[in-house]
Structure prediction request, 344 residues.
Amino acid sequence: MANHKDAVRLMLKTLTDPETGAVKELSEIGAVGHRVVHGGEHFSKATLIDRKVKEAIMECTVLAPLHNPANLQGIEDCELLMPGVPQVAVFDTAFHQTMEEDAYLYAVPYRYYKQYGIRRYGFHGTSHEYVSRRAAALLGRPGGELKLIVCHLGNGASVSAIKNGKCVDTSMGLTPLEGLIMGTRSGDVDPGVMEMIAGKDGKNIHEVVRILNKESGVLGLSDGFSSDFRDLEDAYLAGDNPAATRAIRAFVLRVAKYIGAYAAELNGVDAVCFTAGIGENSPVIRELVCEYLGYLGVELDREQNRVRGKERDVTTPASKTRVLVIPTNEELEIARHTRELVQG
Ligand code: AMP
Prediction:
């Protein structure tokens, strides 16, 4: 598609296609839920969109320059094509707004937070929220009394610590670059690495950040072999590709370290949940991570752990901490928030 406007039009045309469409005409649509990446500190929950909300989304463009303008474009196109239909914004950052300042502040001069909003925001919030609610259902316990660690392991990856239904910490930061090792993103690095790459390779700060976003992670660690875990896992299992083995081992260690940190922060954990492309579909990665979790009394049930893409407890009855596989469903979560707002 040449631009987002064309894409939205094609999407709506497809939705109402006489042969294959899900609805006959646009007038059947009662509300539209939009995934908006960055809500900054403005939004701690989903919100009905009006002019002020659009201005606030625009204001957050400095924090998500690639995403928020595209999100706004989608909203404005839907407003134009479906006049009078309520539009709802569901923010990727909203679920994490319950973090306290000790978790969200960086140890840089405080004025940068006050002046520029430099802090941890976190992402994948809709997924972390959905998975934590499903975890409570699967465990048959109220979410309000659970300590959960949710590992969203996809191309982008993040971990969150959730106490009594509220996010207390998460691994992504000001941008989705921080935290876990990802497909092509480095996750945590010493900022000194950036200065050294810039100096040695004669690059400016934007080029270095691009390298950390696009050429790093398991792609970089495997020396360009692949960012796709299907390739990496096959090579790891074949045992003849040291580059793939190196990438997988580093990825797993980073996940295990965050689980350890969050188990300490939560002062215990009832369940560790795996979700997203890798978390849902890779028994190997789950098993390798769980090898680090003996101190939590985790006993993986290897038979159950063979599951792909199904909600399941993959631990033995004796396991002190549960490990759950929960396929995420951000669309359903967005629809649920949208319906709640429009009906309520
Ligand atoms: P997502 O961003 O959630 O769509 O996840 C994408 C990632 O999930 C990619 O790295 C895929 O290789 C990985 N993935 C998808 N299916 C599998 C699978 N069967 N085994 C291992 N990794 C998978």
About this structure: The chain has a mean pLDDT of 96. The CA atoms of residues 184 and 216 lie 5 Å apart. Residues 154-155, 183, 228-230, 233, 276-278, 281-282 surround adenosine monophosphate (CB under 6 Å). The first strand starts at residue 32 and ends at 36.
